[in-house]
Amino acid sequence: MIIEILSDMCLLFGGIFTLTGAIGLLRLPNFFTRLHAASVTESLAAPLLIVGIILDTGFTLDSAKLVLIIIIMVVANPTITHALCRAAAHGGVNPDMDTKNNEISQSKTETEISAKELK
Amino acid sequence: MNELLGHFNYWIVIFLMMMGLYMVIASSNLIKKLIGLSVFQASVFILYITFGKITKGSPPIITDNVDVYSNPLPHVLILTAIVVGVATTSVGLALIVRIKEAYGSTDEDDIHDMDDNDDFHIKNDRSIT
Amino acid sequence: MIENLHLIIDVCLLAFLVLIAFAAMKVTNLFVATMLFGIFSFVTALLFLDLDAVDVAFTEAAVGAGFSTVLMLAALRLSGAVENAKHRHSALGLFIVVLTGAALIYGTSDFPIMGDANAPVQLHLAPEFIALTQEKIDIPNVVTAVLASFRGYDTFGETVVIFSAGVAVLLLLGMGHVEPKNEPEQSTVLWVVVKPFIALILIFGLYVQFHGDFGAGGGFQAGVIFASGIILYSLVFGEGYARKVVPSKILPRLAALGVLIYGVTGLASLLSDKPFLDYNALSSNPIAGQHMGIILVEAGVGLAVFSTVLLIFYSFSGVNHNE
């Protein structure tokens, strides 16, 4: 009974965090802030959903495979976010919070950004 | 209502198919054309898999306590089709890379103009090594 | 209740697909269009899962959402123009498309309702194949049994098609020559995480190859997953180092070897006075012969697909381009 309630809560919260990730993806102004919101979905919501399913299936071979999937997901998803961030910084996405101009400014290269920071 | 829901898959498939066809006909960029072709292919796959689905069926892997299995034959056909589709897409993309090297552009209108004016030369001579 | 849930998921996923295809049609930025194409393939894989097609979903996710997107990104990078797609309207095209669509929708009025167990397509061959698989081949995955044994000729043709695609890409692009960079790009997080991951991916590829008889899986998926491990290595550590791990000269030979394994398995049964690709001839016990035949054939397919996928990736990444 408790396990059922716990499973339902995990699934519910997984859905809520997915929703907040999606709203953040649409509403936030800059690429890096949007990435920050999307990383909630992949690092918190997905493992929560799978924990909910594990609690529901009980102690079988399937839940052992699901535990393996959670481990892989918890390691891989933040790495993917990091790789995206790195690629964006290398490609010259402007990290300034300019809410009036949402376009990605491709004109700056990494050397220009670091040169600007040195000044 | 049952008729509507029962045929919903087919109508969406036809809609997707026509969107893919329109992308192939009307895009001037070659890569967009390939994307349209892939959309067309995927819609045909969905059509076949829809044919194979049986209500209250289960995937065609023989387990105990299951009496109705979904039809495995469309699955086999579409497995082959997906792999052949990716083979065709890769050859198409290789052709696009070579066209870009020869003409300098991946836009169909520009390529036709260059052909009409006999305005191109092979910019890069390649051999298989 | 569960059936209603299946239907709701089905309707939602199809609506997503329509929106994604519409967006892919409208955007002019080719990079965005390629990403939308990747998402389209992924949602298609989810839809296949909802329609009980687990093997097909597996293949579509690995091939469509994985390899196809990587290839398209590589081609996009090589062809240079990322934001130049002109928007062209074609009234004649629209008219043709609407006319064809209307004709096809009129044609679907005779189709059976989705999921109908008494539709003509469900009554003839499918129950026979399911019964025959349990009786003559005795493996749980019916799709693998039909693919490798009952319809083995078609799968042979498909392997040859994949091989020909590899040959065509070789003829067009060649594999080029990439030297390993002396100072590969430093990225501590990626290096540390990706190394055990590649091992995991390769082991998973082998698992999928040999587990294809018992669950979803088989030669195609395994070949693509195995190649994805090497592609991941080349994306993170540099193309030159990947070519030291798997040299480019070996790949066409491996692909040919895969097709050869498939053909030789068929020839072996010819030598025992049985038809081509009849696995009953491979052993004294027909069921054991079927098992051996399926394993050999799937190994040939996996090898051919792995080498061809990697060969195509090497061809795209070995093109010298001026930036």
How does the SSE layout of this entry go?
The complex is a heterotrimer of chains A (119), B (129) and C (323).
Chain A (H helix, E strand, L loop, with lengths): L1 H26 L3 H27 L3 H31 L18 H9 L1
Helix pairs in contact in A: 1-2, 2-3
Chain B lengths: L1 H25 L3 H23 L19 H32 L4 H9 L13
Helix pairs in contact in B: 1-2, 2-3
Chain C lengths: L1 H25 L3 H21 L3 H26 L11 H17 L12 H4 L1 H13 L4 H9 L1 H22 L14 H24 L7 H19 L1 H7 L4 H22 L14 H32 L6
Helix pairs in contact in C: 1-2, 2-3, 3-10, 3-13, 6-7, 7-8, 7-13, 8-12, 8-13, 9-10, 10-11, 10-13, 12-13
SS-derived structural category of chain C: mainly alpha
For the record, give the distance between the C-alpha atoms at the N and C termini of chain C, rounded to a whole number: 57 Å
The amount of beta strand of chain C, in percent, is under 5%
Shape of chain B: elongated
Count of distinct structural domains of chain C:
2
Structure notes:
- The complex is a heterotrimer of chains A (119), B (129) and C (323).
- Chain A has 119 residues and is an all-alpha fold.
- Chain A has one domain.
- Helix content of chain A is 78%, strand content 0%.
- Chain A has four helices and no strands.
- Chain A is elongated and about 50 Å long.
- Mean pLDDT of chain A is 82; it is low at 104-114.
- Chain B has 129 residues and is an all-alpha fold.
- Chain B contains four helices and no strands.
- Chain B has helices spanning 2-26, 30-52, 72-103, 108-116.
- In chain B, helix 1 (2-26) runs antiparallel to helix 2.
- Chain B starts with a helix and ends in a 13-residue tail after the last helix.
- Chain C has 323 residues and is an all-alpha fold.
- Chain C folds into two domains: 1-106; 126-323, no CATH class.
- Chain C contains 13 helices and no strands.
- The longest helix of chain C is centred in the last third of the chain and has 32 residues, at 286-317.
- Chain C is globular.
- The mean pLDDT of chain C is 89.
- Classes of the chains: A mainly alpha (119), B mainly alpha (129), C mainly alpha (323).
- At the A-C interface, helix 3 of A face helix 9 of C.
